[in-house]
Design brief:
1 helix; 131 residues
Length: 131
């Protein structure tokens, strides 16, 4: 059974840091594009970051650029999202998602913003930034 499981969320003060993890089971993440999305109450799901499967290229939403870092460890079948300088506006349920993209072309903008591009989703982990 193909499954993604997020962990690492929690309550943190503004300016703090968290590292989210996305663990895959039932399949290997090699060559999969992985995206992190978030959804705050009353808002639409938005793309936060994504990483390609072939060369590890990374892409970020403008709102998190310079603060968040996505990385992958294919040997451990894991993807991470390091979040620094957290702001109350980052409060949301964070999801990781996976898909096998076209091997001949990868559009970072497409996979960063288009949730429907992804085939597999985790259940999410809650991040709350509050003093």
């Amino acid at each position: 059974q193909l499954q993604l499981v997020e962990s690492g969320g929690g309550l943190v003060q503004p300016g703090g840091s968290l590292r989210l993890s996305c663990a895959a089971s039932g399949f290997t993440l090699d060559y999969y594009a992985i995206g992190w999305f978030r959804q705050a109450p009353g808002k639409e799901r938005e793309g936060v970051s994504c990483i390609s499967g072939n060369d590890g290229s990374t892409y970020y939403a403008d709102s998190v650029k310079g603060r968040f870092t996505i990385s992958r460890d294919n040997a451990k079948n894991m993807v991470y999202l390091q979040m620094n300088s957290l702001e109350p506006e980052d409060t949301a349920l964070y999801y990781c998602a996976a898909t096998l993209p076209d091997p001949t072309y990868f559009s970072g903008t497409y996979y960063l913003h288009y949730a429907r591009a992804y085939d597999y989703w985790g259940q999410g982990t809650q991040v709350t930034v509050s003093s």
